[in-house]
Write a structure and sequence with these properties.
Elements: H1 2-18, H2 35-39, H3 47-69, H4 72-86, H5 99-113, H6 117-121, H7 127-138, H8 170-182
Helix pairs in contact: 1-3, 1-5, 3-4, 3-5, 4-7, 5-7
Length: 204
């Protein structure tokens, strides 16, 4: 369970470094389900979003255990699911930041760092996970305090194979139609392979 413990320690350290007033250094047994509202106070989360966030936190806990057991099959299954999920989303919740994104980053960052170019953006690569990891560590949306030397080195322009566009799930389309009809927000832009919206990695 050393990997799981290390991942939790890394998450707590990053949260404290980035949001010291919301996550004190004395935080040991932190209730992650309530942290998002503290570190991202300008955002609100509906019941469905909170439930989805909680599920991702459960999933990432399972993944850290999978990494500790070196269960390649289980890890591959999770990565495939996550990559597909992120194909039509900027963050786990769509566009909103949450502590679940940071948990995924701390758990999978070291994994992505070791991937070959083909594993990252080859024909069967995890393009969207790579873009997502780069986005989380660099985007002002998250505001994470990560020294340049600790960031996962990702060349967003190094794309071996451009994946086919993925259509958003039907429920996502319906939500966007409702928002457009009520005047809430604009249309979601298509994500560019290897990049997230508002990515400023070239400025770091």
């Amino acid at each position: 369970m050393a990997t799981a413990s290390a991942s939790t320690a890394s998450l707590l350290s990053l949260l404290h470094r980035s949001f010291p007033s919301a996550v004190p250094s004395t935080s040991v047994d932190l209730d992650l389900q309530k942290v998002s509202l503290k570190i991202f106070p300008s955002y609100t989360y509906g019941d469905a979003e909170q439930a989805e966030m909680d599920q991702w936190l459960v999933n990432i806990t399972s993944v850290t255990e999978t990494l500790a057991k070196a269960d390649a099959a289980a890890l591959s299954e999770f990565l495939t699911t996550l990559n597909k999920h992120l194909a039509t989303r900027t963050t786990l919740l769509g566009a909103k930041p949450s502590v679940a994104d940071i948990a995924v980053y701390t758990a999978l960052g070291p994994v992505v760092e070791k991937w070959s170019a083909d594993e990252r953006t080859g024909e069967n690569g995890y393009h969207h996970i790579v873009r997502y990891i780069d986005f989380v560590q660099n985007a002002p949306l998250f505001g994470l305090k990560i020294p340049a030397e600790e960031k996962i080195e990702i060349d967003v322009n190094d794309v071996k194979v451009v994946p086919k566009p993925v259509q958003p799930p039907k429920e996502e389309k319906e939500k966007k139609k409702e928002k457009k009809a009520t005047g809430q927000g604009g249309a979601e832009k298509n994500l560019v392979v290897g990049r997230g919206k508002n990515n400023n990695s070239n400025n770091n």
